[in-house]
Amino acid sequence: IDAVNFNSSVTGLNELTKQYRLNLFPNPTSNEATLKFNLNDPATVSVNVIDMLGKNVLPTTINNYIAGEQSISINKNNTLSKGIYFVNLTINGAKMTKKLVIN
Q1: Judging by beta carbons within 10 Å of its beta carbon (0-12, 13-18, 19+), is residue 33 exposed, middle or buried?
Q2: Cα 76 from Cα 85, distance rounded (Å)
Q3: pLDDT tens for residues 56-89?
Q4: Which of 19, 21, 34, 43 is the most buried (most CB within 10 A)?
């Protein structure tokens, strides 16, 4: 019988969230929320917000950020109605999602 070794470099969502110190607050909120994360190196970051049906509800943003703590406003103009949304953050291809409740 052959010896089989599986070495995985796949990082779990919890590990990514911890690595980037991802936080979305206040949550729940009735208006604007802040998405905070930390970059060890410069990165291309995209953010999009989808509703429960998977529809984009805010314009997707794509920006280059320097290393360090970053902060992005979500629902700055209070355009989201009451409900549950998913805030998707992609950093150099690694995707993380946080649930946002607007009440």
Answers
A1: buried
A2: 15
A3: 999 999 999 999 999 999 999 999 999 999 999 9
A4: 43
